Amino acid sequence: MEIREIYNKFTTNYWLTSLLLSGVIFLTFSFLISKIESYNYDFTSLLITAAVSILIGYEYATIKYFFSNIYLIFRELEPSFPEKQYQIFSHDLKKKLHRSWQFYLTITVVVLPFLALELTDILKYKFFNGSTPPYFYLFEKTFWSFSLDIINTIIQYSLLLFLAVIIWIMIELATILNELDKKYSICINVFDSREIGGLKPLRNFVLSIVSRYFITLTLVIISYESLIESMFSNVMLRHKAIIPCEIIILSLMILIGLIIFLKEQKLISHLIDKNVNYELNEIYRNYKEIYDKILEINSNLNDDENKRELENLNIKMNFFEKKEIRIKEILSKEFDPKTISVFIITTLPSIITLIKEINEIMNQ
Predict the structure, then answer these.
(1) Are 206 and 268 spatial neighbours (Cβ–Cβ below 8 Å)?
(2) What's the rounded Cα separation, in Å, for the pair 257 and 259?
(3) Which of 135, 217, 290, 300 has its CA 20 to 30 A from that of 107?
(4) Tens of pLDDT, residues 321-347
(5) According to the lineage, what is the superkingdom (predicted)?
């Protein structure tokens, strides 16, 4: 197998790639830590290092999952677009995902505050006798401690960078759904076997991204503190890894996730309502036409041709009745208990973890 084929296999199977990425991070980190004489690398530290390594891989897998499925999800909706609107939408989608100013803005907004806090601590230590920042090189001036500080910084900011990309993904999804609702005239397929008129895969995809975001955020809150605390438990620290400013930032991240999820669900519900109302109006219009024709035919039942027409009208009436029943089923499944349950289950841990961190700070 050629190197290019091996590369394509790994990049296509994003879970395999994320596992490889996590393994490389874990082994590199563990190797460098073993070279630090002042560091006691116990079982707890090993677990925390593994958790952070897995978190980086999980974030990477979430991002790859989005880009591997986003076009497939919307391609399934192609029959719902009238005429050539899907081609326009598909072109706009590719353009949006490849050239998005929101991408760079989101990364800046997420990463910059943490970078500013770290630089502030370094400046305070350097020029104003502030507390010692958590860098190994300040306690053990060797090549290995310097290398570990570099790797640790790369890991922490990679973690935040990937998190920023996931936030951007959720924002883009909300923007795409909003444009889908405002600019395009998609029609739901009442008889689609995938429920809610064929929009269920889209709703599940949105839920999957949001759920992965909150799982990631929970692990970020835990890992961002625990890793540094574990590494520097035997030296004097300036404070815990997560300080009030970082608590505020992480709280805003949770709030952003909640707002985006509610916005996305509202947009999907509006898409369903708009199409359902249109379909119902069409059904009632057909009911009226059929009813008027039946009244007209009843006055001439002796005519064989009218009898056949009446039979055809009854067949049409039965069809529209079944269609009306299907539409009402769609309305009954517009608010899916499973969606709400999954959202709550994945959201609560991040909120509870953050409250726990705030409580520990308050009790110091």
Answers:
(1) yes
(2) 6
(3) 135
(4) 777 777 766 666 656 677 778 778 888
(5) Archaea
Residue 362 has what pLDDT?
Answer: 66
**Residue 243 CB contacts under 8 Å (≥ 6 apart), including other chains:** 117, 361
Q: What is the DSSP letter of 238?
A: S
Task: Please give the mean pLDDT across all residues of the chain.
Answer: 76
Helix and strand element counts for the chain (H, E): 10, 0
Question: Packing angle between helix 200-231 and helix 143-183, nearest 10 degrees?
Answer: 160
Q: Return all residues near 342 (Cβ < 8 A) that are at least 6 apart.
A: 207, 211
**CB burial of residue 313 (10 Å; 0-12, 13-18, 19+):** middle
Q: Are 316 and 283 in contact (CB under 8 A)?
A: no
User: What does the alpha-carbon distance between residue 243 and residue 163 come to, in Å, rounded to a whole number?
Assistant: 19
User: d(Cα 307, Cα 194) in Å, to the nearest integer?
Assistant: 38
- Rounded mean pLDDT, 22-48: 79
Q: DSSP string covering 276-325, please?
A: HHHHHHHHHHHHHHHHHHHHHHHTTTT-HHHHHHHHHHHHHHHHHHHHHH
- Using DSSP's 3-state secondary structure scheme, residue 142 falls into coil
**Nearest alpha-carbon partner for 173 in 203, 196, 197, 199:** 203
pLDDT digits (tens, 9 = 90+) for 82-99: 777 888 888 888 888 877
Q: Which two tokens stand for residue 255?
A: 């709030």
